[in-house]
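Meet our chain:
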Amino acid sequence: MRVPLNWLADYVDLPADTDPHALAAEFAAIGLEEEDFFGPEITGPLVVARVLELEKEEHSNGKTINWCRVDVGDEHNEADDNPKDPQPGEERPSRGIICGAHNFVVGDLVVACLPGAVLPGDFAIAARKTYGHKSDGMICSVKELGLGEDHDGIIVLKDLGLTGEPGDSAIELLGLDQVTLDVNVTPDRGYQLSMRGIAREYAQMKGQTFTDIGSPEVAEVNIPTDDGFPVVIEDSTPIDGHVGCDQFTAVQITGLDTAATTPFWMQRRLIAAGMRPISLTVDVTNYVMLELGQPLHAYDTSLLGEEIVVRRAQAGEKFTTLDDVERKLDPEDLLITDRGGQGGKIIGLAGVMGGADVEVNSETTDIVIEAAHFDPISIARTARRHKLSSEASRRFERGVDPRLGPVAARRCADLLVELAGGRLSPATTQVGQAPEPTVIDLDVARVGNLVGIDYSAAEVTEQLTAIGASVAAGDEGRLSVTVPSWRTDITADVDLIEEVARTSGYDKIPSIQPAARAGNGLTEAQKTRRRISNLLAADGYTEVLSYPFTNSKRDDEMRLDADDIRRQHIRLANPMSEDLPLMRTTLLSTLVELVVRNFGRGAKDVALFEGGLVSTSAGLPAGPGPRHLPGYHPSDAELEKIYASVPAQPYHYAGIIAGNVELPGVWGKGRKADATDVIDTVRRIARTNGIEVSVKADQIAPWHPGRAAKFVLADGQVLGHAGELHPKVCENLGLPARTVAFEIDLDALLAQDDLRSWDGALSTYPVSRQDVALIVDADLPTQTLAATLREGAGEELEQLETFDLYTGDQLPEGKKSLAFRLTFRAADRTLKADDASAMREAATKLAAERHGAEVRS
């Protein structure tokens, strides 16, 4: 919410010398965090100037310019460092300025920017030679001063309802010295999206008495009559228990002056608040919305039917909004329509945006002003469904004061009558009724218990009264609090307690670091994640974080089969980007983007890893999960359905190495990464966490079918895969050839028993080592052969190492030789060579029986 400080000063006692940065800090202490400052952007001399002479000159480029003599005041006319181009017989000093605009005449007061000034956009002004003259400054337009988008002509003060004398500061006259503070309004505090709301916060913060300009008890409102413009609310079927519109106020104005324009002071405030002036009627509705927080809409009475109807959309209906976009409507959309006479059309998406059919225009003299109260959830869903966020929808979906409609409608009507003539009709429509206020019982002692500060009943009463609540004392330290109508976010006693803490100042709450409970610390999952991350970082991987959003094109690029479970994505109802509407089912699908980005920025060798959640729609019921109203406590059976509708989100680790795994240097040429690097990474991850894992060859996308490994845990679960990516995958994704990658399921790892504990005694007897080389089929996995040797060797085998692999001419085709070192140790004796040899022979015998292994001599 942009808060022009000079506008805020209309409602509270804001000293002229208020430091905006100090004010921002004070607002932050009560929950209104500073987003930005919009301060004076113009420096140097910007003054009122009177046009003394104007000579039109046509030039060879076809352009007609004005050579002007302007009076900029004695101080600036006589400046020694700004030489003039005086004319013979000139009565008084002046400046000569070239101007291309033609909307002014001799005698007009304009705004002149003199040499040495700097305009928005760091545009410095200097005297320069042009069109045969020395132009000693610039006569300014609205756009050049950052006051709007109009660039059709320069500023003529009388057109803005302003006056002055030559040499007066135009910065002060035009309000260009004002500061606007932009504060972040949280979604539950819609009342702060108005000057009324911000002024209340300021008054409470400073201990000032606040007069609520939006209260029906203070402001003047119209009394409802029977002859008001007919309005019918046809929302008989609530959606999820929400009635779309509970109150609709309409007032009528006739005889508006079609030539009336928005006064400059209002335009200036609208621009400072971030809105573009359009026309008087529209500007007044926007002004009142910013002032009070109630969105308004004005309809041309001559274009309306005989009555306004509020209803839900019908299936298949379409409507073209003011932005000229035709929208297909949903039965949940709330509409403003008309019927009777020439009516029978949709005239607006309620609380979001109107249509062009009944829009006020330059010929409009009679209008109907709408000030309705719409259901926040209905408006929020419509705005998101149509991707159409507006200033009105922002306020309605955060909660608008249901009692504000009559006040805002009358305030808008009074401004239009004042600025555009016309007559306010006494005929007033008010359909529906504002809800009854919420009354909450509050235990004063509970406030201190939750906040950590001892508040007295008087202090609590003072703070709650300041936010607009009515407080009555009860029995035994209790208070009966009537919540103000604009605070729809306050529904329970804890909300009142939060208000006491907030308005007293969050900075006053003591910070006490609680002592950790003995024996508590990181969970086993947290410890495991740290171990894995530390291991990968030590191996040279860099940890990164990618967004979890993807698309079906990525599945195609990774060559996933049509029936692959990894194609069963969860589709987002409101994605951040239309190109990424799906949640990832694998980390590699998003991690590859970061690898490609690094290579695009000049990296040659990349090793990245990521730990994060993935999700899948596999196993989920069709359609959305169960919905319940706030405050409803589901039964056990309903909870089961709710949990069943929540997708599984396992935690994965994935890593990619592209380029060299060992960098070149004085020690050698370096080494390119290959499948064994990532396979070894996964094996060491399992070993570091005390988990036994077996490795098997596998064929699965996106890996190369002959260079991929599957890791299987003791209980049969698949831990993950590792290997070289398929050449086509590398080509599709823009990765270097022979890029390698791994991905594992951490949740599957955590489900295993940690085997790192040792219950037995350490043997003090020496080891006996035996080596053996076995010839086996080339496609037999080393892991499988090693497991067989362990089984055959018996319990006294302490360690089994693979130290050589040979394939060559000395072996038959389709065969390979694997050399193993077997380390034996007994717990109760020294093993003899014959004992160790016997155990080795038992191991090789079992390998021969199962795999046809032959001992290589």
Remarks:
- The longest strand covers residues 46-58.
